[in-house]
What we know:
TyrNic_aminoTrfase, 304 residues, 8-stranded mixed β-sheet, single chain, globular, 35% helix
Amino acid sequence: xxxxxxxxxxxxxxxxxxxxxxxxxxxxxxxxxxxxxxxxxxxxxxxxxxxxxxxxxxxxxxxxxxxxxxxxxxxxxxxxxxxxxxxxxxxxxxxxxxxxxxxxxxxxxxxxxxxxxxxxxxxxxxxxxxxxxxxxxxxxxxxxxxxxxxxxxxxxxxxxxxxxxxxxxxxxxxxxxxxxxxxxxxxxxxxxxxxxxxxxxxxxxxxxxxxxxxxxxxxxxxxxxxxxxxxxxxxxxxxxxxxxxxxxxxxxxxxxxxxxxxxxxxxxxxxxxxxxxxxxxxxxxxxxxxxxxxxxxxxxxxxx
Length: 304
């Protein structure tokens, strides 16, 4: 093809667009990027079978399958034709109500439908939560070790990341002294992943109470990633961070992916665990709604 006498390299230099350099480091930090690199180096003709211990999707194996009750409900919802139209951007009311009732079982107060915002999996819940908090100069406190997607999303949103350590000698509890030392007037939130990913720890009621009091003193919210709720072993029962919503406002993030072994169904949620109404007063609820209005419509789900 005639390019006007200009070679390809020179022609490319005239274009005004190019890649977003920040996305290269974001992609490299993801868990899938690491697994893809490992898998790419596995020899198909290797002498030993490969056990995928890094596989994060148990539904890929026949021994893990969700209940037939859920499958039948999905089939019935599809055949009903009642859910083929566009859903409200915050999610359909019956699903929001069901999630509110389910999560309220573990709380000292009742969640309402208005506290629930449906998302396309917990990944979108993280995206929206961090996007809502992003403002020039703001920083967020993340656990180390933690789930790398938080760092990636913070980078995309221009949020400065400051890491607090989890203490292995204390069962991977949060170093709360470090949290207080790291926070300043530009700190907006701290992320608590419980049950822990990747450490597998489960925080005690007492430790979560200390986390809530620390966040209250600092004037920051807690983002509670509870996607593994109730998938626990050992002596510590799962306690939702929302139990301490009267102490500090909590954005609870979750999904049906892990406990119900259906990550491909892409149903997650953001919950305002905030009986004192701080999120409404500070317009955080309005911002969550706005983000859902301008991003991909959240997944619809079965009635009830």
